[in-house]
Design a protein that fits this description.
There is one protein chain. The protein is built from no helices and nine strands. With 93 residues, it is mainly beta. The protein has a single domain, classed as F0F1 ATP synthase delta/epsilon subunit, N-terminal (ATP Synthase, domain 1, Sandwich), CATH 2.60.15.
Length: 93
Amino acid sequence: MNVKVISPEGQIFCGETDAVTLPGEKGAFQILKMHAPIVSTLSAGEVKIHCTSTIDSESITEENVRVEGENLIIRVNGGVAKSAQDEIVVLAD
């Protein structure tokens, strides 16, 4: 599935994944391929994107983004996530 993470400063990430873990208002939750449509607010925490391709950690310039193994971790202060038709869009603060 395709995932896009967008902040007020611009797009942070766009790529393919098979799982995304998000910091929901009532706790972390995970979205997998073919998930039912969902819209959720996000609290402060980490968006974990399990990348299906290799991540070049040297190309990451955002200080709130890091790589841990096969996961791209993006620190957010809140926001909104929408999943529909095998695409996830995260509007992050």
